């Protein structure tokens, strides 16, 4: 089964639906990844989730985003948990069988992103940088190597 390909326009539209829910959980979201940096549709859309910056003595202060409550609240916009990991939670828009993947990267969590596996069908993506944004090296795909 083929993974849905996200466009920049679709990513912005879903960001506008997620942001109010993020704010209710002491956070904001920021668009990143291939949808933003490369031309053409991509296998998933990536959002960084980060805490509101408020003083520790403020009643709204949270030491970190309440990840489980935030992800659960996304059901209100038809987004469901697909695979929780350490810093990246893979979620899907609508029916998981449609494979409309979204990666939520929780910035305040410690750990290495390499601990989090890639979205299925990563090889489906083309690798064309957006003209004028990248010289072809800064955002070049990282080749995976076997650790032995």
State the main characteristics:
148 residues, alpha+beta, Beta Polymerase, domain 2, 5-stranded mixed beta sheet, 3 helices, 5 strands
The helical percent reads 10-25%
Give, in spatial order, the strands making up the sheet with the most strands.
1-2-5-4-3
User: What integer is the average pLDDT?
Assistant: 78
Termini distance?
31 Å
General shape: globular
CATH class of the domain at 8-109 equals Alpha Beta
> How many beta-strand elements?
5
Q: Could you say what the CATH topology of the domain at 8-109 is called?
A: Beta Polymerase, domain 2
Describe the structure.
The chain has a domain of 102 residues: Beta Polymerase, domain 2 (2-Layer Sandwich), CATH 3.30.460.10. Helix content is 19%, strand content 22%. By secondary structure, the chain is of the alpha+beta class. The C terminus is likely disordered. The radius of gyration is 16 Å and the shape is globular. The longest helix has 17 residues. It has a five-stranded mixed β-sheet with strand order 1-2-5-4-3. It contains three helices and five strands; from the N terminus they run H-E-H-E-H-E-E-E.
How would the blueprint of this fold be written?
Blueprint: H1 8-24, E1 27-32, H2 34-37, E2 44-51, H3 67-73, E3 79-84, E4 88-93, E5 101-106
Parallel strand pairs: 2-5
Antiparallel strand pairs: 1-2, 3-4, 4-5
